[in-house]
Amino acid sequence: MIACAGQPILTAEQTRAAEERAIRAGRSVEALMQRAGEGIAAAALRFAAGQAILVACGPGNNGGDGYVAATLLAAKGQRVRVAASSPPRTAAAMAARTRWAGPVESLETAAPAALLIDALFGTGARPLDPVQDATLARLAAAARLILAVDLPSGSDADTASAPDWAQAHPATLTLALGALKPAHVLHPAAGACGAVRLIDLGLPADAAVAVASAPQLPEPGPTSHKYTRGMVAIVTGAMAGAARLAGIAALRSGAGYVALYGDAGQGGPAAIVHRDYDAEALAESRIGAVLIGPGLGRDTQARDRLTALLAGDRPLVIDGDALHLTDPGSLRARRAPVVLTPHAGEFQALFGTPAGSLLDQARAAAAAAGAIVVLKGATTTVADAARCRVHPHGNPWLSTAGSGDVLAGTIAAQLAHPRADPFAAADAGVWLHARAAAIAGRSFLADDLANALTAVRASA
C-alpha cells in the first residue's frame, strides 16, 4: 500500500486507457487482477487479526479482484467467506472464480462478518438499486472494519457522488487500484472512502493532476537579507484587521519584509511596516508580491486600487473582496503572475459554474483567467491551465473568520521569493496553511492559525 501524497489522479476513462496501454505493453488482465488481489489480501491480513472476513463480489473485474483476494486469504488460514450479487461476467473474473474453492453465498442473504471487503463495483460503478444499497448497509453496519476495493460500491469515480450506505457507513480503508480517482479526494465520496491507499499496478499515469506533497521551500543563506527572502506588500481597505492577519501570516511563513499600504491603524506586530497608500510605491522593484483583497471592501476606492495593480508588473495575489471587482478577461490580459484564492461563492461570482468536477472547474477557470486558481473548500485545489494539485481532507475548523486572510498572506510570502515558481508558491502556501491548522488544533482563532505558521515553517 502506498500513501497518496504526490500520486497522480486519473478519471475513470483515463484509468481504462492506462490499463489498455499496460495490456498492449504485454500485461494481461489476469496479471493485473492477480496483483490487485494480492494487495487487497495483504491489507486484509493487517486488519483481520483472526476475525471472520466476508468478501462481497460483483460480476465484473472488481469482483474478480475479490475472488483472488479471498483465495489468497483462505490459503493463509483466514476465516473467509464469499458472497456474490451475481455470477462473474468477464473472462478474468470467471477464471478467478474457478480458483476459489469455497462456496459462494447470495449477497442478499449473507450473514455479516467482522471485516467486510467490498469488491462489488469499482471504477466502472453503476447506481445501486435499493436492494443492493440496503444489503450493503446491513453488512456494513454489522462489520467492525470495512475495506473498499477501488471505491465504496455505487460511488462515481469522476463526479464523487456516493450512495447512502457508504455515507452512513464510511470505509475504514479504501484501496485505490492502479491510480487515485477524483472520488478519492472530492466529497461526498472522499468522506465515504475513509483512509485511502494506493495499490500500484504498474499503470502508466500522467501526473498533470496529482495529490499535493510536501513542498521544497527556500532557505536563507549567509548573504540573505529581508528583500532576498521576499517583500510582501498588502493593500488595505475598509477592514484593516484582515490585512494585518495576512501580514502576520506572511512574516511567519517566510517573508523577510511586510508592508501594509493604506493602514492608518498601526496595529499588529511591530515588525509590520505601515505606509500610506501610494500606487507608485507599489511598483517598487524590491516588492516580490502584492496582496489585495483581505478586508478591502467593494467601493470605488477598492476598485481603483485593484485596477492600478492589474496594470502593474508585480506578482499579485487576489483574495476576498477583490475577486468581486474584476473579471477573467482583465486578468487574462495581465502579463505578470496572478494567484486567485476564491472560496466556492467567490469562484461562482467570478467564473460562473463551469462543467465537470471541482478539479475540472478549477483548471477551466485557470485557463479562462490566465492565472493560478486556489479553489478553497473541503478539498482545496491549486490549478493552472496545465497542472492541478489537490489538498484533500481539509480541516473543518478552518471555517472561522480570517482563515482565508491567513492563507492569502501565506501564499503571498511564497510568491514573493525572488526565485519563486508561481504555481509551486501557491501549492506551498496551501500546504503550510493546512499544517498550521493541524498545529492550532480545535476551535482556534485565525490569529492562532497565523502564529502557528512559525512552527510549521521551522519544521518544513
Automatic annotation (TrEMBL):
This is Bifunctional NAD(P)H-hydrate repair enzyme. The gene is nnrE. In the N-terminal section; belongs to the NnrE/AIBP family. PROSITE patterns: YJEF_C_1 (PS01049), YJEF_C_2 (PS01050), YJEF_C_3 (PS51383), YJEF_N (PS51385). HAMAP family: NADHX_dehydratase, NADHX_epimerase. Its cofactor is Mg(2+); K(+). It catalyses: (6R)-NADPHX = (6S)-NADPHX; (6R)-NADHX = (6S)-NADHX; (6S)-NADHX + ADP = AMP + phosphate + NADH + H(+); (6S)-NADPHX + ADP = AMP + phosphate + NADPH + H(+). The lineage of its organism: Bacteria, Pseudomonadati, Pseudomonadota, Alphaproteobacteria, Sphingomonadales. Residues 209-460 form the YjeF C-terminal domain. It comes from the Bacteria. AMP binds at residues 376-380, 404. SUPFAM superfamilies: Ribokinase-like, YjeF N-terminal domain-like. Keywords: ATP-binding, Isomerase, Lyase, Metal-binding, Multifunctional enzyme, NAD, NADP, Nucleotide-binding, Potassium. (6S)-NADPHX binds at residues 61-65, 150, 242, 295, 343, 405.
